[in-house]
C-alpha cells in the first residue's frame, strides 16, 4: 500500500484503491455529545479529514452537523461508521446502514465496519457489507476488533477482502503477529485509543522519551502509531488537545526508540480483548 501526502497529513491507499488519511479524529464520546460538533469543527480547522464514528456512539447527527457547518466539501472528508452488535445479521445490517446514512445525511460513507465479531452473525453481516459496497453506498468496507482467527473464518466465505481492520493499538497492547497478519492479507490496520485514555501519560519510560523529543507523551504515542503505518484516530473533545494531537508531523522517532517502545506491552486496554472472543 503506497502512501501519498495531501495537505499536511499523509494518506494511505487501501486494497481497493481508495485513499484514506493516516491521522483522524475518533468521536467516541458517550457523555459528551454536546461537545462532539465543536470538536469536529476544531479538528477540521487544523487539517483533519478523517472522522470515525459509529451507530453505537449515538452522535452520527452531530458529525453531519459539523461537516455541514464547516463548509468543507463532503468529498474532501473521509467518514467512517460501524454496525453495532445488536444490529448484525444480513437484513438487520442493511436496515442499520440505512439508518446511519439517514442520521449522517449522506448517500455514501467512505468506510463501513463491523464493530465487533459476533459469532452467530459474522458471515451474514459481511454479506450485507459486500452488498452495500457493490451498490456503491460505501467506498470501502472492513472490520473492527477482529483478530486473525476471526478474519480467517470470515475469509472462508467472503468474496471481498476487508480493506481495514480497526483494533485497539498502542505500545501497551502491541501484538506484532496481528500487524504481520494484516500486512500479509493486504488489510490496512487502523488503531483506536492510541492514548489509552491517559492511563500511561505518566509512565516514566514514556515521559523520558517524550522529553527527549520535546513532545508530550500523547504526541509520542500518536507518532509511534503513525510510524507503524497504522491509521490513527485519537479521540478528544478538547480544542487544545485536538490541536496537540495533530501536531505530530514535524518529528520522527528513531528506529532505536521505536524498538524500545515496541517492548512496552503489558496488555493495558480500554476495550475488551478480541482474543477472548471465539
TrEMBL record:
Q: Which UniProt keywords apply?
A: NADP, Oxidoreductase
**Listed GO MF terms:** 2,5-didehydrogluconate reductase activity
E.C. designation(s): 1.1.1.274
Q: NADP: is it a keyword of this entry?
A: yes
Gene3D superfamilies membership: NADP-dependent oxidoreductase domain
NADP-dependent oxidoreductase domain residues are: 30-263
The active site is formed by: 57
InterPro entries (alphabetical)? AKR, Aldo/ket_reductase_CS, NAD(P)_OxRdtase_dom_sf, NADP_OxRdtase_dom
Site residues (Lowers pKa of active site Tyr), renumbered to this chain: 82
Task: Indicate whether Nucleus appears among the record's keywords.
Answer: no
> What domain of life is recorded for the organism?
Bacteria
Query: Which residues hold substrate?
Result: 115
UniProt similarity note: Belongs to the aldo/keto reductase family.
Output this protein's name.
2,5-didehydrogluconate reductase
Amino acid at each position: 500500500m503506497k502512501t501519498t501526502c495531501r495537505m499536511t497529513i499523509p494518506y494511505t491507499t487501501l486494497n481497493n484503491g481508495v485513499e484514506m488519511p493516516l491521522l483522524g479524529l475518533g468521536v467516541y464520546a458517550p457523555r459528551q455529545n454536546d461537545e462532539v460538533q465543536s470538536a469536529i469543527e476544531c479538528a477540521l480547522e487544523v487539517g483533519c479529514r478523517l472522522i470515525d464514528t459509529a451507530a453505537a456512539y449515538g452522535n452520527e447527527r452531530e458529525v453531519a452537523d459539523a461537516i455541514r457547518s464547516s463548509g468543507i466539501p463532503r468529498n474532501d472528508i473521509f467518514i467512517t461508521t460501524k454496525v453495532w452488535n445488536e444490529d448484525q445479521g444480513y437484513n438487520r445490517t442493511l436496515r442499520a446502514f440505512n439508518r446511519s446514512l439517514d442520521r449522517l445525511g449522506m448517500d455514501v460513507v467512505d468506510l463501513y465496519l463491523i464493530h465487533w465479531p459476533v459469532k452467530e452473525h459474522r458471515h451474514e453481516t459481511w454479506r450485507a457489507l459486500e452488498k452495500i459496497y457493490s451498490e456503491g453506498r460505501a467506498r470501502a468496507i472492513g472490520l473492527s476488533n477482529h483478530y486473525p482467527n476471526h478474519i480467517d473464518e470470515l475469509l472462508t466465505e467472503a468474496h471481498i477482502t476487508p480493506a481495514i481492520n480497526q483494533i485497539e493499538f498502542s505500545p501497551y497492547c502491541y501484538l506484532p503477529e496481528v500487524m504481520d497478519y494484516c500486512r500479509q492479507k493486504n488489510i490496512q490496520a487502523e488503531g483506536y485509543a492510541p492514548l489509552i485514555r491517559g492511563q500511561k501519560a505518566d509512565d516514566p519510560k514514556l515521559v523520558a522519551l517524550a522529553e527527549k523529543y520535546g513532545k508530550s507523551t500523547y504526541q509520542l504515542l500518536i507518532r509511534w502509531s503513525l510510524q507503524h503505518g497504522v491509521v490513527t484516530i485519537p479521540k478528544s473533545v478538547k480544542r487544545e488537545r485536538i490541536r496537540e494531537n495533530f501536531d505530530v508531523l514535524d518529528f520522527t522517532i528513531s528506529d532505536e526508540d521505536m524498538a524500545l517502545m515496541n517492548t512496552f506491552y503489558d496488555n493495558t486496554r480500554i476495550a475488551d480483548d478480541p482474543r477472548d472472543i471465539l
